[in-house]
Amino acid sequence: MTIVQIDKENWESSIKKLFGAYRLFGPVKEADFHNFKQLEAGQLPDLSCLNTRLSPKSIIYPQTEVMFKYTLDENEEDHHILKEVDKDYSPQAVMGIRPCDAKAFELVRLNFDSPDYKDPYWLNAYTATTLVGLACESPCKTCFCTTAGCGPYHEEALDVLLIDHGDQYWAKVLSDKGDAFVTAAGWTDAVDEQPAIKEIETKKKTAEDKISAFVKTDNLRQVDTNELYNAKFWEEVSFSCINCGTCTYVCPTCWCFDIQDENRGSQGCRIRNWDSCMYPLFTLHGSGHNPRGTKLHRVRQRFMHKLKYYVDKYDAGIQCVGCGRCVRLCPVNIDIRRVCGYMNGHVASAEACEV
Amino acid sequence: MGGIVLNPYLPYPVRIDNISIETEDKNLKTFRFVFLNPEDEEKFSYHAGQFAELSVTGKGEIPIGIASSPTEKGYVMFTVNKVGLVSSYLHAMKEGDIMGVRGPLGNWYPWEQMEGKNVVLVGGGFAFTTLRSSIVYMLDPANRSKFKDIHVIYGARTPGMLMYWDELIEWEKRDDINMHITVDGTDDPKWKYNTGFVPTITEQKAPPGGQDTFAVVCGPPIMIKFTQPVLDKLGYSDDHIIMSLENRMKCGIGMCGRCNIGKEFVCKDGPVFTLKEISETPREF
């Protein structure tokens, strides 16, 4: 493990070097919020950004993506046969990603990289990506990463962790990909490791202490699925929901998708789009029957998936990194931290006693 | 970059080899497909009870149970109900047309576990397709001795709504399978089989349950609902009642997120579950 220092006055010139080796992504200010964008040659990632409005999941998992192309023209020899499309899986790097958003990719990976099937689109993009994280010094009020299996300095999913250090950035190299990135940037000025590690520990502790929101998840595994499913609190939790889907759209760990064919004349492509468990069409049968026909069903599905089904299926914690986006952006103030509290504290017998 | 070689979303190209109308309302058609690349047939090696995504290029995909048996070579067969966009378009297609088949997908009936046991197949309406696959598989000379008594209870609304009619009559004549065909009602005076709903006929004809007997139930929700108490009464335990579920699907490989019942995906962890397994889920199907 190496830690290198970069003087901020050399920052811009070193970033410029990276454009030759990577397609670079970073936070960019749009109107009054930031989002991740592909940087144009010479453009700098805006590291003053607290966090982006949307998660960076679209860099690996685009909101809409072509899977195959085909022709319907029967004069062509291969008509009606789906063909793979060329994709750009050259190296790309995400600069200034927060540790929580990086960790989200690890959680999502369990879905797309299963023992039985590999999703080539997600995995190829993920493999091509270097994640250069930026440690959080001042988390938001809505952040609850430290109790969601993550934290402001969490290194697990990152290739490099950048730490703001006054006139310098420190870059902690965490993987081979990270090593290659640091080399490409020409960051070679290693710091004296032991004192640096100590200082980072202190900064980390300071940042973690600023987190003021928490979830309890210790009981989620034990509580019975069907008892939780039938709990009375879903009525109250879902009451104000308008099924707008904002929560699933901004969430770094929501991965559901739809597949559609789109034709233009005799040419077409099979595409996949983000989908949402908040929408009735998501589960509507051809017969008209809908197993999740009410918003209560759909709200419950979202929370049960993240906080119970995922927990049971993978034994890798909750499907949430505590970024707080859904809490901040829900138009009716549904708060996953509160719902998690209901679920974790659920005692079926206690509810049965209520009159 | 080490690319992923196998793309699980890419269908095998097939040609529609034969189309036949199954029912008097013409809403059910059986499509026989031949693989354009003969080596794909080998790759599409399947078990009775599995399904596949039928890919109608330019329209989309639909998950359909495989109606042919692994013992039938040279083609795969699916019976499709005309319901939505893709299935309606498919019904208008003709022999010789090119489309795709993606699979086989999902798990299958527990054939190893059912070896040496009695097997009771209970089917209703157009959910009989994978049961047809199962019957042909079990009756194959190489397989029949692996199973004890075979009972089939199969019902439809009217005689004209029973699928695979010629085969049903062939099986009726055999002495190594007990067929109990039934219709909800008919005014045909020559109807010589059963009349009555599937649960009623099951109560009358199915052998008693026990360690040596498995029931495989496939049908509309209402039939399943009323058949379950009958099987309970006959002494079938919930791990000897096997069911095949349906839910809306897209990917078919457990990734797109819509077909789950609790933590189980109907497409990948199913579609075949024991009643015991289903009871442990919120039953969102």
Could you explain how this protein is built, in words?
- The complex is a heterodimer of chains A (about 350) and B (about 280).
- Chain A is α/β, with parallel strands linked by helices and about 350 residues long.
- Chain A is about 35% helix and about 20% strand.
- In chain A, helix 7 (about 235-240) crosses helix 9.
- The N and C termini of chain A lie far apart (about 60 Å).
- The mean pLDDT of chain A is about 95.
- In chain B, about 50% of the residues are buried.
- In chain B, strand 13 and strand 14 form a beta hairpin.
- Chain B has eight helices and 15 strands.
- The longest helix of chain B is centred in the last third of the chain and has 13 residues, at about 220-235.
- Chain B has two domains: about 10-105, Translation factors (Elongation Factor Tu (Ef-tu), domain 3, Beta Barrel); about 110-245, Nucleotide-binding domain of ferredoxin-NADP reductase (FNR) module (Rossmann fold, 3-Layer(aba) Sandwich), CATH 3.40.50.
- Chain B is α/β, with parallel strands linked by helices and about 280 residues long.
- At the A-B interface, strand 4, helix 3, helix 6, strand 10 and helix 9 of A face strand 6 and strand 13 of B.
Write the SSE topology.
The complex is a heterodimer of chains A (355) and B (285).
Chain A: E1 3-7, H1 8-18, E2 23-30, E3 33-38, E4 64-71, E5 83-84, E6 92-97, H2 99-112, H3 120-127, E7 129-134, E8 160-165, E9 168-173, H4 176-185, H5 193-210, H6 225-229, H7 233-239, H8 246-250, E10 257-264, E11 267-274, H9 295-314, H10 325-329, H11 336-344, H12 348-353
Chain B: E1 12-21, E2 28-35, H1 38-43, E3 51-56, E4 60-65, E5 76-81, H2 85-91, E6 98-105, H3 111-114, E7 118-124, H4 129-139, E8 150-156, H5 165-173, E9 178-183, E10 194-195, H6 198-205, E11 213-218, H7 221-233, E12 241-244, E13 260-261, E14 264-265, E15 272-274, H8 275-279
Parallel strand pairs in B: 7-8, 7-11, 8-9, 9-10, 11-12
Antiparallel strand pairs in B: 1-2, 1-6, 2-5, 3-4, 3-6, 12-15, 13-14
